[in-house]
Automatic annotation (TrEMBL):
Annotated localization: Nucleus
PANTHER family: REPLICATION PROTEIN A-RELATED, REPLICATION PROTEIN A2
Organism: Magallana gigas (Pacific oyster)
GO biological process: DNA replication; double-strand break repair via homologous recombination; nucleotide-excision repair
Bias (Gly residues): 11-23
Keywords: DNA replication, DNA-binding, Nucleus
CDD domains according to UniProt: RPA2_DBD_D
Main localization of the protein described in the UniProt heading: nucleus
Name this polypeptide is given: Replication protein A C-terminal domain-containing protein
Entry superkingdom: Eukaryota
Amino acid sequence: MWNQGGYQDQGQGGFSSPGGFGTPQGTQGDRKSRNRAQNVLPCTTAEILSATQNDDKFYSGEIELSQITIVGLIIAVKESPTRIDYEVDDMTGPPLEESVPEPERIAALRENTYVRVYGTVRSFGGKRNVTAFKMVPVMDMNEVTYHMLEVTHSHLALSKHAASGMSSGAPMNSSTMGDNIYNNQDSGMISGLNQVQNQVHSIIQSNVTEEGASIENVCKQLRGVPERSVREAIEFLSSEGHIYSTIDEDHYKATDS
């Protein structure tokens, strides 16, 4: 969870690579004039692309964007001998490029997969990107909404501290950057279902209305996933007994909701 000290991690260097992923310490002057979220800050691609740059540091208002996390949909994947480049769209602005260097190779994720990315903000040739040290698929679509709430809450908390002249550099524990941070790579996943089927099931399961989730609504939440793929997933889930139709053949509820 986010608190006023940021996402927490007790490691001193955290993740490392040839490029270095440690959180820069900054000068005393920087700490007085800018507010830093220690280690991992929830943010959006729009924030990263519109952030002001001072040398190798990036700021959203008075908040430094050093190590960040975003949630979005992979719309393109490009592999090379030294890295994998992903274009991730979180619907807040133009897609942002995420790069995974060879020493930190992460199993390739496919297009039309929602992911949570952890990384550092960089700029090469005037182009912003994120060098990722961790990427995990989103299994519960509620995480997309939850992430946006985290972005709002964390920035309000840090802005409040900046206005009052307080530091937000609280010590950190391992509950954030380890595998315990959300555990969403395991939660909500049904064995035997593929990525799209799990995402469709999660959306239908989270709908609490009498009529259930409509196919149109599911497609809207899974932007980038072809409608045909959504319908095929719904047909499979229905035939396997995971969901059932309600008022018509376009509305479904989960059998375990």
